[in-house]
Design a protein that fits this description.
The structure holds two protein chains of two kinds. In chain A, 26% of the residues lie in helices and 29% in strands. In chain A, the strands form two sheets. In chain A, strands 1, 2, 4, 6, 7, 9, 11, 12, 14, 16 and 18 form an eleven-stranded mixed sheet that branches. Chain A has an eight-stranded parallel sheet with strand order 3-5-8-10-13-15-17-19, with helices on one face. Chain A starts with a helix and ends in a 5-residue tail after the last helix. Chain A is of the alpha/beta class. Chain B has a domain of 166 residues: Rossmann fold (3-Layer(aba) Sandwich). In chain B, 37% of the residues lie in helices and 29% in strands. Chain B is built from eight helices and twelve strands. Chain B is globular. The chains are: A alpha/beta, B alpha/beta.
């Protein structure tokens, strides 16, 4: 570990031994907090300065007001860094009963519940983990925590870190850049196909569901990887803000699929910047499911820089009650024959609000680029709301953008038809909703798709008067 | 037995049926005929419990109880089955999965495995002339009129109904398909001693499913009733004779 930065640790910040097992920075954010985080992690000067620069950008930028209401976020109330051991701060008794009930209904084993409930920092269950990791390592695959990667592979990390989501990208990316902790680092060597999906779920000994996690994936030429982030069961967090940054580099002929199932508890602001850069003939696929959180703002973006690069975003949002899920996608076509397809499906119920917000940009010279955007919204009751905010900019005469949007309500005739087959109103409605999301759910690995369907059914229980 | 007793029905406060009375008896076939707009489908939807069809007076007696306030699923669980005139599509709802769910609902004690069910399904679909790829698609999504009608019959076979309400099951079917599904429905009704109510404009289906009673509806009222011979009279001289 580099001791140079360690020496910078000044005494006046109120601690002398960064190795104590329980540590968190004081509430609120300022330059000292940012410095402390870097020092505690024994980071090199470069990251130390990167964080400080990012913090300046964070301070300089106003709160974004173009989307959901963020005025309740109080940056002074938040703890920006907690040592992993400190994550076990609350007890099982403190986990809200509605979340415990959901675990019960999903049939999640006791040990896993504790982990998901944030009671245990680590969920140690995976015997397959060891053998899988060895096989990957033999192929030259690197899959580790972001902090560990920075220590072990600083050259590789710095070649890509912050390159497609620069520290001044947006207020929350700046915040993440300043205080990030945890997240995954993945490097797939040339022509290596990783057959099994890599999942954060299986990765132990690192912070998994960090507040400000940072993920970096590099798929070298001709390689393939499927990365799965999160899990379908609700993640209980006492943290009120989750601001992650994800950067994905898809090299020539490579393909990356990135699957997210987000189910934060409904006290969380989930403000995530996800971006991929896709080179010639590369394919980037995002499968993005949003079930939880109070507010989500997330628009996986694809910068198609190489000829024939393709991006695909399948996103689904289920907004219920107080939730406002503002999700979408971006496709930036910068090269000829690049293609993108964005399919967004949202369900609003019990007063929930979901929005599609997307941008398709085709630059001059991106000849024959094509983009197709399909947004389908399903609104289950009169209290709920759905909006679409598409932006299409096409500067290339030979390219074209297609946009389709539908908004539907569950038809009386559909409900009656299914009920006349013996299904209750709840069962019938669940069948219609599950059918609606089926095109996306079928893209998920089996255990995820089953659990996603069950979760949607749980959310809908009692939603019909 | 089901008794439709002095039933009047309104839709959006507009009266459609006026004081209708008839019985559906186990093992018997009733044909309900009449010109367009006479209220035939209203009878079917009222029996099945569509929420928009308000019973303003009268009762539907099942055994000894009045079931006119029961929801469509409660009626289905009593053995009612409505083969819809225009079955709706449910995008994303896989036909096989759906049929399996219906099967489980109506055979809670049966230890049929999914694979046994599938082979049974394959056999029945083949008999009815349903292309096997339709079973892997979304329910009625992009199906032709005839395919939808055959799918209704398949659902009927899975639910073992005691009261079959066939609302123009014959429309959209070619003559060969009409014969096949009529005979299959006849066998089902015989096996289960079910009552059948056939709503039709076209007497052809009644050659295969011979009615015990024939009712002619006009302007929301039963204008005539009789036995199978009434069908021939209608063929000969129309509804207004």
């Amino acid at each position: 570990m580099p001791t140079t930065s360690y020496k910078k640790l000044p005494y006046e910040y109120g601690f002398s031994d960064p190795e104590i097992s329980v540590f968190k920075t004081k509430q609120g954010i300022n330059q000292d907090v940012v410095k402390t985080i870097s020092l505690l992690k024994h980071e090199d000067d470069k990251m130390y300065n990167f964080r400080l620069r990012a913090f300046q950008y964070f301070t300089d930028q106003p709160m974004p007001t173009w989307g959901p209401d963020l005025s309740d976020i109080n940056f002074d109330d938040i703890y920006y860094y907690l040592k992993p051991t400190d994550k076990e701060g609350h007890s099982w008794d403190e986990v809200p009963s509605e979340i415990k009930n959901t675990y019960d209904k999903l049939g999640i084993p006791e040990a896993e519940k504790q982990y998901l409930g944030g009671v245990k920092a680590q969920y140690e269950s995976e015997v397959i983990y060891g053998s899988l990791m060895k096989k990957l390592a033999d192929q030259g695959v690197i899959f580790c925590g972001m902090d560990e990667a920075l220590k072990k592979y600083p050259k590789l990390v710095w070649q890509y870190f912050g390159k497609i989501v620069p520290p001044d990208d947006n207020k929350f990316a700046s915040l993440n850049s300043a205080v990030w902790s945890g997240g995954s680092f993945i490097y797939i060597p040339k022509n290596v196909h990783v057959e099994l999906p890599l999942q954060t779920y299986f990765r132990i000994n690192s912070q998994k569901m960090g507040q400000f996690e940072r993920t970096l994936i590099i798929a070298d030429e001709g390689s393939f990887v499927h990365y799965i982030e999160g899990c379908t069961a609700p993640i209980y967090s006492t943290d009120s803000l989750h601001a992650a940054v994800v950067e994905v580099f898809v090299k020539t002929n490579a393909r990356v699929r990135y699957t997210t199932i987000q189910n934060w508890s409904t006290n969380v602001y989930n403000l995530v910047t996800k971006r991929a850069q896709v080179e010639a003939n590369g394919v980037m696929e995002w499968v993005d499911g949003n079930l939880g959180s109070k507010v989500t703002m997330k628009y996986p973006s694809n910068i198609l820089v190489g000829e024939n690069a393709h991006a695909e975003v399948l996103s689904i949002a289920v907004a219920s009650g107080i939730q406002h899920l503002d999700a979408g996608a971006k496709a930036i076509h910068l090269a000829p024959n690049t293609t993108s397809r964005i399919v967004s499906k949202s369900i609003s119920l019990n007063g929930g609000r979901s929005s599609y917000r997307g941008t398709v940009y085709i630059s001059q010279g991106a000849t024959n680029a094509r983009s197709k955007v399909v947004c389908d919204a399903l609104i289950l009751d009169k209290l709920s709301r759905s909006d679409t905010y598409p932006i299409n900019k096409n500067s290339e005469p030979s390219a074209f953008i297609e946009h389709e949007a539908t908004v539907s309500k569950i038809g009386e005739d559909q409900l009656f038809y299914l009920m006349s087959r013996g299904f209750s109103v709840n069962e019938a409605e669940a069948m219609i909703v599950n059918g609606f999301v089926e095109p996306i759910v079928k893209q998920l690995p089996m255990e995820y798709s089953l659990e996603l369907n069950r979760l949607i059914n749980l959310q809908m229980e009692g939603s019909v008067a | 037995m089901i008794q439709f007793k002095n039933i009047s029905v309104s839709v959006d406060k507009k009266p459609i049926l006026k004081n209708i009375t008839f019985d559906l008896k186990p093992g018997q076939i009733t044909a309900l005929m009449g010109p367009n707009g006479s209220g035939k489908s209203t009878v079917a939807l009222t029996l099945a419990g569509h929420p928009n069809y308000q019973i303003t007076s009268g009762q539907i007696i099942f055994g000894k109880i009045d079931i006119s306030q029961l929801s469509p699923d409660e009626r289905a669980n009593l053995g009612f089955f409505l083969a819809s005139q225009s079955p709706v599509a449910i995008p994303g709802l896989n036909v096989k999965t759906f049929l399996w769910q219906i099967f489980k609902k109506f055979h809670p004690d049966q230890k049929t495995s999914l694979s046994e069910f599938r082979s049974w399904l394959a056999f029945e679909s083949d008999t009815l002339g349903i292309k096997s790829e339709l079973l892997d698609r979304s329910l009625n999504d992009g199906f032709s009129g005839g395919e939808r009608k055959k799918m209704e019959v398949l659902q009927m076979l899975v639910s073992n109904p005691k009261y079959l309400i066939l609302d123009e099951i014959d429309s959209g079917l070619d003559i060969d398909a009409l014969k096949i599904i009529s005979l299959r429905i006849q066998k089902l009704a015989q096996d289960l001693n079910s009552a059948i109510l056939i709503i039709t404009h076209a007497p052809k289906i009644l050659e295969y499913l011979k009615p015990n009673q024939v009712l002619v509806l006009d302007k929301g009222q039963i204008k005539k009733s009789g036995d199978a011979s009434l069908v021939q009279k209608i063929i000969d001289s129309g509804f207004n004779s």
